[in-house]
Structure formats: C-alpha cells, structure tokens
Specification:
This is Zinc finger DNA binding protein. This protein is of the alpha+beta class. Helices cover 56% and strands 6% of the residues.
Length: 283
C-alpha cells in the first residue's frame, strides 16, 4: 500500500477496521455464569495491519487482492456477529466450584444471621437477668433490714422480760411475806353452828368474855365465815377473825388453852356462847 493511497482512502480504511477479539463475543442473556468462547481467539500472530486493504476503484493488482481479502474478512466478521445465540456450556469442575462458592456464601450469611439472633437473645437474657438480680438484691436488703429490726426488738423484749421476771419475783416474795404476816394475825373458830340471823361480832365478844380476855371491837379488823373445803360436809363453816396484831391472836389462843385445861370436864363449847353444838376450837 502506497502512502498516497493510504492518505487518500483513510476514512474508508478506518470504517473497515475491526478487531478479531472484539467480534468474538458470545451474546448471552442476563446471566452471570461464565461461558467458554464460542469462537477460537485469534493467535498473537494475527495480522492487525491495514496493508491488505484496497481502495474501491483504482490500484495495482496486489492492492486489489489485499482489498478483496479485507472485504472478505469484514463480511466474515459480520456473519459471525449474526450467528444466533446458543446455550452456554460450562465444565463440571467449574459448576462444582460455583456451587461450592454459592453454598459457602449461603453458609456464611446463615451463620451471620444466626450469630446476630443469638447475640440479641443473649443481650435480652442479660437484661432480664440483671433486672432479676437487682430485684432479688433489693428484696434481700429489705429482708436483712427487717431481720435486723426484728433482732433488735427481740433483744429489747428479752431484756424487758428479764426485768419483768425480776420484778415479778420480788412482788411474789413480798406478797408471800404479806400473806404470811396476814395469816399470822388470823384466827379460825371451828364448830360454831350457823344461823341466818347470827352476829359474828357478838359471838366473838361472848367467847372473849368466857375465856376472860378483853378484846375491843377496834382490835378486830374483820370477821367472817369462810367457804368449806368440802362442800358436801355437814360441819358449819369456820369463822375467820383478823386482829390488829399477831400478839393479840397468841393471847386469845393461850387463854383458850388455859380455860380448857382448868375445865377439863366442861371445856369451851358452843353452849357457852348460848348456842347448842360441839366444842369450840381455835386455830
């Protein structure tokens, strides 16, 4: 190809340029699956120059042959581009690799989702456990406070109980002393028959006159009949006389014993009091 021919037909030559690698493209549908090349890729020794292109009209025989070859090559490329699409084919090894890759992607995504769900569940459990432990700790503190208060109350009550027991024992001792002192001033008169209209003061006064002991009414604190120990007994109820002092009681008992000693055949009895009955006894 001469320089003048190249310069004159440059525009047509540019339109005829076509890269064999660009025309060797398999048309596919919207798929991501890699496919084999449907057409054999030209070797590196393929002639990519424009020296074989010829003009449309004039030129030498060699130029005409080169132009014809370029036209044939261009028409062949056009025919290749018009070849209908065919199903893509891949090897079993490549299919296995793609399947493994897809399964690995699914496994990773599934593991991530499971980890996310487990993490969320663990966080919820942590929150619930924290709330539960806080509630239990609060309840435990309240119980401890109540136990401390109860222990303090029990200690105070025990101390007060000991104090009350001591005071009660002291009062009991005093009461026993008072009862003993009171009993020391008491004198019981047995076997005096009962009458509905009886006057115990008059009966006691007659008794004192009989044994010759002067006992004014002011020295008598109280005089009364006491209940029977055995309610079914026929004996009359005893007369209980409380005097001012223990010495007065001892004087009366001593005078009664002296009277009975001097009058063995006619010891003091209820007839001396103007009442028929048994002998009178002092205790």
């Amino acid at each position: 190809m001469t320089k003048e021919y190249y310069s004159k037909n440059l525009s047509e030559l540019k339109r005829a340029w076509a890269c064999p690698s660009c025309t060797n493209i398999a048309r596919r549908k919207n798929e991501n699956t890699p496919v084999r090349n449907q057409f054999e890729i030209l070797s590196e020794e393929a002639d990519m120059s424009c020296d074989d292109l010829l003009p449309n009209t004039s030129g030498t025989d060699s130029d005409s042959r080169m132009f014809q070859q370029a036209s044939i090559r261009t028409s062949a490329n056009k025919q290749l581009s018009l070849v209908p699409e065919t199903p893509c084919s891949i090897s079993y090894e490549r299919f296995g690799e793609l399947l493994d890759f897809k399964l690995e992607s699914i496994r990773v995504a599934l593991a991530a989702d499971i980890k996310k769900e487990i993490t969320a569940a663990i966080e919820n459990l942590k929150d619930e456990f924290t709330r539960t432990t806080d509630f239990l700790a609060s309840e435990q503190r309240d119980i401890q406070d109540k136990l401390a208060s109860v222990d303090s109350t029990i200690t105070s009550l025990e101390s007060e109980n000991i104090k009350l027991r001591t005071e009660m024992n002291e009062l009991k001792r005093r009461l026993q002393t008072l009862e003993k002192s009171s009993r020391c001033r008491n004198m019981e008169i047995h076997s005096v028959p009962e009458r509905k209209t009886e006057n115990l003061f008059a009966i006691f006064e007659k008794l004192c006159k009989e044994i010759k002991v002067s006992t004014p009414n002011t020295d008598i604190l109280s005089i009364r009949r006491v209940a029977k120990i055995n309610s079914e007994s026929d004996r009359p109820r005893n007369i209980l006389v409380t005097l001012q002092s223990e010495r007065q009681r001892d004087v009366l008992i001593s005078a009664l014993r002296q009277y009975n000693k001097e009058n063995k055949d006619n010891q003091l009895n209820s007839s001396h009091l103007g009442i028929s009955g048994e002998n009178v006894e002092f205790i």
